[in-house]
Amino acid sequence: MTTIADLILFALALPATAVSLYLLLLTLRSQAQPAALRSTRRLRFDVIVPAHNEAAIIEAVVANLRKLDWPADGFRIIVVADNCTDATAELARSAGAVVLERHDAKLRGKGHALNFAFQASQAHGWAYAVVVVDADTEVSPNLLEAFAARIENGAKAIQAHYAVLNAQVSWRTRLMSIAMAAFHQLRSRAREQMQLSCGLRGNGWCITHRLLHQVPYRAFSITEDLEYGIDLGLAGYRVHYADEAHVKAAMVSDEQAARTQRQRWEEGRFQLIRARTWPLLRAAMRGGGGVCLDLALDLLVLPWAYVAANIAALIILASVALLWEPTMDIWLSLGIFCAFSLTLYVLRGWQLSGVGLRGLMDLLRAPFFVLWKILLMLRTHATTEWIRTKREQS
User: Facing residues of 130 across strands?
Assistant: First the structure.
């Protein structure tokens, strides 16, 4: 009986301990970056906004992008009206954007829209680099400055800080803000400190045309950002992190819409885990170095809600086993260590999120959030279609 209990607890403790050590390392290395050098302000950018039936908000994002602190003749705003059936194209054009209209009933999805825009930008030959910004986004004025400074210092792909625009709308958006601060800012700061790839997060990223030519964009899954970030890593390029510049997008606060959005993200992530983990590990073993290994670990480390469920199961079962067998205390000690590490990680995410005391109190809802995430995981099914998420009302 003791042997069976040990095997069960070992199976729970192994992933929990490995993940906790990894997250603890990232937490301890998540200090702020030093200020970036100033650019010469000579680079030219195509800022690409993929949009599918975004008539209600497209004018706002174009207006926001026109306020970028960059020479007016140094960037173009390009809206890709992808399979739109509303007035997205007309409104974007009247707001001052260059509009590319794409209609393809078979090749649907954000990845195809981006590939269409990248090819058009390359064919035009005007821009040195392209920037991707989602249609529901507000960007900091220094976005292009942060990208240009890094490009002039050798970077070829850069990701800006990605945060929540409507963090204080509800307990759900505050928890999402904490989770995103941990996933995006905490991890990306640490990876930048360790010269690893922070990966692409789908919104607020930049790549030079030279690298886009060397590593063609062929990411068409629901998690096209993670997919292309992995392609770059496998090709030997890391994504740099621009902590001082940010993009903020509204997260859905409605439970039904949040479930739909999160379920699509989780589906795509699990598909990517199955398809890309081994190639990354193989590349790391063949000399790909820390970048490929870390990208593999980033894929394998599930969101903190799942990690918390794993640790909770370890602590509960170890506590029960300890009632019959005193030698089980090692498993309980491991569980407590894992819980401590995860707590530090989450609290650091809370600190970086800026949601204040209300956000800290909302963490008391975390057990329900964990249950919600697990139920979503059990209900996942494959999809690659671009399903427009219900937008928050301003």
Answer: 46, 207
- In a domain, residue 375? The reply is no
Report the distance separating Cα 211 and Cα 231, nearest Å: 11
| Count: domains in the chain | 1
For 257, the 3-state DSSP assignment is helix
Question: What DSSP string describes 28-71?
Answer: HT-PPPPPPPPP-S---EEEEEEESS-TTTHHHHHHHHTT-SS-
Asked whether residue 198 is domain-assigned, the answer is: yes
Q: Please give the Cα distance from 153 to 37 (Å, whole number).
A: 9
Q: How far apart are CA 363 and CA 54, in angstroms?
A: 33
Identity at 225, one-letter amino acid code: D
Neighbouring CB atoms inside 10 A of 40's CB total: 8
pLDDT of residue 255: 63
Residue 108 included in any domain: yes
- The two tokens of residue 158 are 């850069």
pTM here is 0.89
pLDDT at site 309: 87
Residue 363 maps to a domain: no
For residue 359, give every residue at least 6 positions away whose Cβ sits within 8 Å of its Cβ, in sequence order, or none: 167, 174, 175, 177, 178, 350, 353
Alpha helix positions (H), the chain? 2-28, 58-65, 88-94, 110-124, 143-151, 171-180, 187-193, 209-214, 224-234, 255-283, 289-300, 304-322, 329-353, 356-362, 366-378
Is the model's pLDDT at 302 over the cut of 50?
yes
pLDDT, tens digit, 9 for 90 and up, residues 29-55: 998 877 767 999 999 999 999 999 999
CA distances for 167 relative to 19, 39, 180, 198, angstroms: 27, 32, 11, 23
Identify the bridge partners of residue 138 per DSSP, sorted by sequence position: 248
- Per the listing, tokens 């997205």 go with 88
CA atoms of 186 and 179, how far apart (whole Å) = 10
6: left (phi over 0), alpha (psi -120 to 50) or beta: alpha
Residue 289 DSSP one-character state? H
Closest CA to 81 of 60, 63, 65, 104: 104
Kindly give the interhelix angle for 304-322 and 366-378, rounded to the nearest 10 degrees.
Answer: 110
Looking at residue 200, which CATH number applies to its domain?
A: 3.90.550.10
- Show the domain range for 238: 45-275
